[in-house]
Amino acid sequence: MNQIKPHGGTLVNRVADVRLKDEIAEKASSYVKIELSDREISDVEMIAVGAFSPLTGFMCKEDYDSVLDNQRLANGLPWTIPITLAVTKEKAESLQAGSFAALVNDENEVIGVIDVAEKFSIDREKEALKVYGTDDKEHPGVAYLYEMNDVLIGGEITLIKRRKYEDYNEYRLDPAESRKLFADKGWKRIVGFQTRNPIHRAHEYIQKCALEVVDALLLQPLVGATKKGDVAADVRMTCYELVLENYFPKDRTALVLLPAAMRYAGPKEAIFHALIRKNYGCTHFIVGRDHAGVGSYYGSFDAHYIFDEYGREEIGITPLFFDYTFFCKKCGQMSSYKTCPHGADDHISLSGTKVRAMLEEGKTPPPEFSRPEVAKFLMESYKKKEDYKI
Predict the structure, then answer these.
(1) Class of the CATH domain delimited by 169-384
(2) Which of 191-195, 204-208, 235-239, 354-358 comes out lowest in average pLDDT?
(3) Which of 125, 177, 201, 346 is most buried, judging by how many CB atoms fall within 10 Å of its CB?
(4) Three-class SS of residue 265?
């Protein structure tokens, strides 16, 4: 069965062959070490398994500049988020182009190596404005950017040690594995849905609308690094499982985790997320209101408009755009501003602040907002975690 091609045409694989891992690890013991942040570890793994295809490593300056200036890689392929590795000036002095460096985690374990191709300075102000549309350090993506080290190291990576998890391993599929799953099930048209929040009725509504025109839904929650205040991954996962178990056809849905870090780059991240889902084998991608947004930095539909800046063929995955959704009392069902003629007084749409207030008072969110199984679980979780936020 023909499948959608990965971005760039080839699914990258930078995971070392099992026969070479010991040899690479032994050589790496003598290399200069670069300790990675949690996001950088995530990026290494995403590059290695092909989720960031066509990238084979951290960006060199030509790609970095092109992404900032043109929203494309230097070869012209659409790309909107810099994937970079930052080190201190002191560390950079010990690294030379043409040499290898060991990539280590916070326990000093070598997880991979980088073939150093180039060193160059980060341009924080330019990157902030070009990627996030603001230089406000209250923005979590900008804040991270200004905490990064000063020198960027570009070069191809090889992964030799992946992180091990004790939970949800049945949902941890690489792009090659999700593509095989789709092929085995005979799915030709798969719509991807990105989420970092507990699933609620508005999410369910747009997912089911999309399911009407495709073969299957890939629910793919992001479980990499997120900002303080986002709901913990284990809480979100239970919500997803409850909804899929009770309200979706089991033969037309798949739950696969996305171990990428959240950037909160709004429209730029909408393109980035679409390309990642293309690499996982999706043919369609849901883009809702304020996709990947935070605060009031982006317009409600900026993440829709940015797709107009690219040709349909060069993006290669079909975006499905959805308006703001809610339960309408007069319609008696979930609706959106595209389909409902009634006023706001007839709409039930709860903000995170209102839901938190209800949970604090021991009140169950209404069924128009959340399925009862999910609402009950959120109440139980809220009582257990003082810093829990919706």
Answers:
(1) alpha beta
(2) 354-358
(3) 201
(4) coil
Q: Which candidate in 14, 179, 196, 277 is catalytic?
A: 196
Q: Where are the domains of the chain?
A: 18-159, 169-384
Question: What pLDDT, on a 0 to 100 scale, did the predictor assign at position 380?
Answer: 86
pTM of the shown model: 0.94
**What pLDDT is attached to residue 17?**
95
The residue from 13, 70, 149, 197 that is catalytic is: 197
- 197 an active-site residue? yes
Residue of 3, 78, 86, 77 whose CA lies nearest to 39: 86
Q: How many CB atoms lie within 10 A of CB 164?
A: 6
Q: What are residue 299's phi and psi, to 5 degrees?
A: -70, 155
Token code pair at residue 34: 């670069």
SS3 content of the chain, % helix, strand, coil (to 5): 40, 20, 45
* Statement: 18-159 belongs to CATH 3.10.400.10: yes
The number of residues in the chain equals 390
371 as an active site residue: the answer is no
Q: How far apart are CA 367 and CA 313, in angstroms?
A: 41
Q: Provide the greatest CA pair distance for the chain.
A: 70
